[in-house]
Amino acid sequence: MRADLHVHSTASDGTDPPAEVMRRAARAGLDVVALTDHDTVAGHAEARAAAGPVALLPGMELSCRLDGRSLHMLAYLFDADQPELAAELARIRDDRVLRARAMVDKLAGLGVDVSWGQVAAIAGQAVVGRPHIARAMADSGAIASPREAFTRDWIADGGRAYVGRYALDPVRAIDLVRAAGGVTVLAHPRAGRDTWVTNEQITRLAAAGLAGLEVFHPDQSEAERARLIALAHDLALVPTGGSDDHGSLTGYRLGGETTSAEAYQDLLSRVPRPA
Ligand SMILES: [Zn+2]
Ligand SMILES: [Zn+2]
After folding, report:
1. How far apart are the CA of 188 and the centre of ligand 1, in A?
2. What pLDDT, in 10s, does the model give residues 186-233?
3. Cα of 60 to ligand 2 centre, how many Å?
4. DSSP helix, strand, coil percent of the chain (3-state; round to 5)
5. Is it the case that residue 243 has pLDDT exceeding 90?
6. Residue 146 C-alpha to ligand 1 middle, in angstroms?
């Protein structure tokens, strides 16, 4: 059995629509594919409707923050309509706009002549973000080029007009997903410096009810995989794998990393029983 438990579509930052992801999963010879878009389940309906030989495992990848650093949490088989979880997801989505507006307000307070209307017009249909604010700043003449916005003086991380993203505490994410009938897997804990999760932190998350650890991920070295397998064994976590495919953005790698049949069954067995 071949199961790729980490895949993105156009519902977040992937380049292929969910139906195309399902077709590619079939061509890759997968039996199971998990659609795990960032902070949304918007792609599930289309993926489900694209009936084919591959089973869809509904999921998402939650943006979390632990000890001041970004962390990604994969979640599977939860009820996205569960009120508390749905409210958190709405909060994360709304935050994208609130955050951009707050940065515009801070810039105005610093004497920069930019308005929310300008920024929104520049963003158009895209999810509004710092690049759009930077362009508005350049248009206003406050800076010579958008690039100059990304300094400590302006909207770089920690800058005078910077506003951080809202992100979930991972222990709360574990609780929310559990309460919604699902299971959580810590995504790519050793994929890079930006999202490095320590053994001590993983131990804490395991104690909080984490079900699995993503071991087989394209950005994790053989040495780190070996360490994570040992850690998963010690903490009784399920070692999972996924390609983290984003379509053309990541060079079409769907099915390149997989979860073993044994691990997949173990993960399913950890879905909480209704009380
Ligand atoms: Zn991630
Ligand atoms: Zn991902």
Report:
1. 7
2. 999 999 877 799 999 999 999 999 999 999 999 999 999 999 999 999
3. 9
4. 40, 15, 40
5. yes
6. 27
